């Protein structure tokens, strides 16, 4: 039976395919800020009373991550005397989250803002960070207004951007630097943001590097199909750059793209594209676009009886709309985080879902990018806690750069956020009978190899920089 994979690498460079590490659980637990599944028989920690948070001899843990949220240490000096940073008071740290809540198309930021709120409520229920409660400002970038959203954050005097994710994040990248903000985003979409100063993210996505693991996996399974590949992308600059990155990385692994096309940002249908690919003998299809548009593409491919051997979707397509859509049976979708289907094995994921379930999400379901937003919150809190009473932007950013091993307690693959190092793992889910099931690896974890990290030929942009850097 043909395997139909779906390789649509997010309409924004998003995350470079699910990743992790072959480190032993003992080494994983020892890594700074790392974590994995907690053992059986744990008890609920005092404080927030959240499922998935355990109490051990060294204090509460979320999965295997020491919980960074809590009251100020006994005997600590008065908080008011130690920090004059914007957004920081004796008992509060004000942060902001920027995401695309409204726009012409459904973009892959669903549950970003909601997950940020879930993290804030979760952390505050344990006492905040060293006793300082978090105060969250929510800002809508509206798909094309990221500069205005960033300006609003600057003018609001927040301490940091936390858990954000927006398609056109290049627009406000330099503004964030110029007004002195630091950021721990859920994901980045452009080089200007991904390679910028003042930013550390739980799922590193440097635009001049690539994780080639999934490409090699598909090439091994389908050596002939990859010689007749196709790529489509929405007519946005960010999507075009990502499509170029995919072509460069995949052709280095033996792929040959015989069909490449930019399509409308809000297309009515993909009938002509489906016919053209079928007539050209395409056997591998990838798209850089929104979930809504990809659902249309799959539908029209099925209507045209175009059944390529491989279709391969990126992390944003781990969305309930995909398995419900016509033409999706057998599709593969890459992930960066532990699948919701594996929540019984992941106390950290249980904690996220429990925290998410306690907020008013307005019917928005949790997503893998929401998990990354929660992971970003934990990463930020870990650095702030390490900074102690000296909560300044430079100090917290320095603590973030010290974190070289991170999986959010078992929420995601093991990554190196401190060095912004490209990831070396992937995980595939497959659509079967209207649901997602594991495909690779079959049972648990991620498929990882340091050799998956590759440099991209050519120039794929540069990051926003501090003046004089």
Count of individual beta strands: 17
Report the total helices: 13
Overall geometry: globular
Structural class comes to alpha/beta
Strand proportion: 15-25%
Compute the separation of the termini in Å.
Answer: 55 Å
CATH superfamily of the largest domain: Response regulator
> What's the story with the biggest beta sheet?
8 strands, mixed
Overall pLDDT: 86
The portion of residues assigned to helices is 25-40%
SSE pattern: HEEEEHEHEHEHEHEHEHEHEHEHHHEEEE
CATH class of the largest domain: Alpha Beta
Core attributes:
single chain, 469 residues, alpha/beta, Rossmann fold, 2 domains, eight-stranded mixed sheet, 13 helices, 28% helix, 17% strand, disordered N terminus
What would you note in describing this structure?
The model is unreliable at 1-46 (pLDDT under 50). Strands 9, 10, 11, 12, 13, 14, 15 and 16 form an eight-stranded mixed beta sheet that branches. A four-stranded parallel beta sheet has the order 5-4-6-7. The protein has two domains: 26-35 and 81-206 and 343-401, 3-Layer(aba) Sandwich (Rossmann fold), CATH 3.40.50.2300; 209-340 and 423-449, Rossmann fold. The protein is globular and about 75 Å long. Strand 6, helix 4 and strand 7 form a beta-alpha-beta unit. 28% of the residues lie in helices and 17% in strands. The protein has helices at 25-30, 112-125, 146-155, 173-178, 191-194, 213-221, 237-251, 271-280, 291-303, 321-324, 347-357, 368-387, 393-401; strands at residues 53-56, 59-62, 65-66, 92-99, 133-140, 160-162, 182-184, 209-211, 229-234, 257-263, 284-288, 310-313, 332-335, 425-432, 435-440, 447-448, 453-455. It has 469 residues and is α/β, with parallel strands linked by helices.
